[in-house]
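Marked as duplicate of an earlier ticket. Keeping the data here for the record.
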Amino acid sequence: MPDVKYRRIVLKLGGEALAGQAGYGIDPKAAEEAATKVAVLKSLGVEVAIVLGAGNIWRGKDGIAHGMERATADHMGMIATVMNALALQDALGRLGLDTRVQTAIEMRAVAEPYIRLRAIRHLEKGRVVIIGGGTGNPFFTTDTAAALRAVEINADVLIKATKVDAVYDADPKLHPDAKRFEELSYIDALNLRVGVLDSTAITLCMDNDMPIVVVNLWQERSLDKVVIGEAVGTLIFH
């Protein structure tokens, strides 16, 4: 077993990680694929907490565009993240992993309330902790929720696993000559207005010296390369 650089991680997954080819909804096969990647991390002895988005079910900006109040749209999104959390919990359970779902918005019939010390205890016992419900407050993204939870549970790193392989200075799909960064300072990431992570999340990590790694979830071995310290994706730090 290789030595790992990061013993406790927060893994931020967008809702698209569970959507499959359709791009919306929950695809059990996509959930299984994501769960398999988490299982590899657990086999390395890594403590894993996961924060999920909900773009595969609901995007608040679509409601806002039609006149919906921002707070209402955000609350709907937070509830949708719990659906994704339950789907991922089921997939992880079928792989034999012990999991707990915690939510910032209480839903005691389906999940525990998020309690910082309880989440840490679950991690210490080898359980995967899936945290739904965002921060529990409107006007904050799930990226910010992931940064907040990473700081709260004393994680070693926040991994933003998305569909791009790194941070670029422009959209590489639209600009083939876009510059790819292997490392960025927090300030440079803020100045670039990095599209894969919002500024509030970056600022929170900067204020608490929480390193961020941006990787492509679907790139082979991307997650386990991060935790063992190999250069992959973009590292955002000091």
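See parent ticket for discussion. The chain has two domains: 1-156, 164-238.
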